[in-house]
Amino acid sequence: MAQEHAHSSAVERLLNCEVPLRAQYIRVLFREITRISNHSLALTTHAMDVGASTPFLWAFEEREKLLEFYERVSGARMHASFIRPGGVAQDLPLGLCRDIDSSTQQFSSRIDELEEMSTGNRIWKQRLVDIGTVTAQQAKDWGFSGVMLRGPGVCWDSRRAAPYDVHDQLDPDVPVGTRGDRYDRYCIRIEEMRQSVRIIVQCPNKMPSGMIKADDRKLCPPSRGRMKLSMESSIHHFEPYTEGFSVPAPSTYTAVEAPKGEFGVFLVSNGSNRPYRRKIRAPGSAHSQGLDSMSKHHMPADVVTIIGTQDIVSGEVDR
Amino acid sequence: MYIAVPAEILGIILPLLLGVAFLVLAERKVMAFVQRRKGPDVVGSFGLLQPLADGLKLILKEPISPSSANFSLFRMAPVATFMLSLVARAVVPFDYGMVLSDPNIGLLYLFAISSLGVYGIIIAGRSSNSKYAFLGALRSAAQMVPYEVSIGLILITVLICVGPRNSSEIVMAQKQIWSGIPLFPVLVMFFISRLAETNRAPFDLPEAEAESVAGYNVEYSSMGSALSFLGEYANMILMRCPCTSLSPGGWPPFLDLPISKKIPGSIRFSIKVILFPFLYIWVRAAFPRYRYDQLMGLGRKVFLPLSLARVVPVSGVLVTFQWLP
């Protein structure tokens, strides 16, 4: 959902459209759920590459619960298509906040279990400490972002540096590493999961009631119930779904702090309803180019695990 | 000369084969339960017929071998591995007098057989005529050697305490107290060295999929790989037997309690034998893998000096207090 958020933010910036507060809170809530889901996958598949097969299955049990939240809110477990330009697609169903709350209450214990298997384990430390080290200058040169950049100590988090939505009110702590090796990145991801849990706990409490889409009917179609009642609603439903809406001319680059790094969308519009150019800046494609320099002076068995720690998904590398 | 009766031989080998088959199932089930899922439980209730199904499948599959592989060696290598682990059971005592053959050098015989097991792996890898298999075989073999030496030194430590006897008498000597209790660090080192010797996690980099494409038996299919695999598991069970003889006491009754005297000795032995493969599986589920150079460093720089460092003080203490048997 972070990627949907990036694209929607780009479109909204071009349109100069204001997203209602409730929609912003919902977006942040699901962004942090995405972050936990991504980190549990990334960390534990990385652990499986190193050899520990158990954290993978434990984390996926947690991920099942999060995917169930996705499905309840949007209908799809993974590619939710929930965050749309102007707000979110639908309001949260009844009971979702209560279920999210009960799920997060036990989630910290699950993170503790994962940590118990790995963090103090001497085999784990031997495999991860001082492997795949990146200095701060190298990280900036190669264009790393996200955890790869915070590992060597560069404190850059798009949520803090260029706050969007309501992040300035939620105030997460941003964990930053010191040595820039794989162990630091692993610890940062675990800590980010805990901070995401903190945000998830705060969001439903602070969420106001209200609209979940921008008021501009040319941008956000009305609900289906409304649509059948009045002529204008039918037109406002028909137009976006067939022709789309027009976006004014200049271009924008909007980036969000996706769990894998900084996910950016460069959108150039020529005033019509189709973008002239949309370039996606995926964090994985920048990280994968650093593989060579990161794995120098290490063994072949480390290359596999360095790929894991960069949190690369081939899909976003190739696009 | 001790003449072995064929029935006795069958009585040792058949349960071992069954045990190995079910150990494969047990590994899958135990790992599954550690990982919050169920293992195979479709074939037969609780998956108990799964080894049968797997065995049938492997027998019925077409054996493919590389055309440039050395034919006779390629076929013989997994057979040799499996046969050696069966043969080593000849000197393991199950109860008073229940041992196929009881030479005075029983423990040495066990040690020699496990050293011969290295040949099976090297021959399997080399005769496959494939780069990766050969590399995997060399790495497995090179990993086994320092841990073998470490095991030998640990056996010496125990033998010093017990005296030069045949295997049954070594077990009998633990009537007062199990060797594993005063020599508990030695038991731990023995366990870890056995993990490394049988290429089990966390020392299984030569067999790991991601790093070295399944190691020395990559070119084998159907029964060839099944035999290598079974040989490895038979080694796991087998290596519990010196553990049992040395450490938690083998078949003598637990602290001479009348209740445990009622259970037959071989059952007591089997219960103790079952414990260690369970620990092996548990360790495999819990820990990540050592990288190869870290594994070798651990063997040569940690376990070898440690085992040597156990022999010297133990013998010193025994000589000083004249407790030598």
UniProtKB/TrEMBL annotation, chain A:
UniProt cross-references to Gene3D superfamilies, sorted A to Z: Cytochrome-c3 Hydrogenase, chain B
Family in the record: Belongs to the complex I 49 kDa subunit family.
Every NADH-quinone oxidoreductase subunit D domain range: 49-319
A single Gene Ontology CC term: mitochondrion
One Pfam family per UniProt: Complex1_49kDa
Alphabetical keyword list: NAD, Translocase
InterPro entries on file: NADH_Q_OxRdtase_suD, NDH1_su_D/H, NiFe-Hase_large
Top-level taxon of the source organism: Eukaryota
One of the record's GO molecular function terms: oxidoreductase activity, acting on NAD(P)H
Protein name, UniProt field: NADH-quinone oxidoreductase subunit D domain-containing protein
GO biological process terms on file: mitochondrial electron transport, NADH to ubiquinone
Cell wall biogenesis/degradation found in the keyword field: no
Automatic annotation (TrEMBL), chain B:
Catalytic activity: a ubiquinone + NADH + 5 H(+)(in) = a ubiquinol + NAD(+) + 4 H(+)(out)
This protein's name: NADH-ubiquinone oxidoreductase chain 1
Keywords of the record: Membrane, Mitochondrion, NAD, Transmembrane, Transmembrane helix, Ubiquinone
Highest taxon listed in the record's lineage: Eukaryota
Similarity-based family: Belongs to the complex I subunit 1 family.
Gene Ontology MF, one: NADH dehydrogenase activity
Organism expressing this protein natively: Daucus carota subsp. sativus (Carrot)
Chain ranges passing through the membrane: 6-26, 104-124, 145-165, 177-196, 269-287, 302-324
Membrane topology (UniProt): Multi-pass membrane protein
Record lineage: Eukaryota, Viridiplantae, Streptophyta, Embryophyta, Tracheophyta
GO cellular component, one term: plasma membrane
Alphabetized PANTHER family for the sequence: NADH DEHYDROGENASE SUBUNIT 1 (PTHR11432), NADH-UBIQUINONE OXIDOREDUCTASE CHAIN 1 (PTHR11432:SF3)
Compartments where found: Cell membrane; Membrane
Assigned EC number: 7.1.1.2
GO BP: any one term: aerobic respiration
Record's keyword annotation contains Mitochondrion: yes
PROSITE patterns assigned: COMPLEX1_ND1_1, COMPLEX1_ND1_2
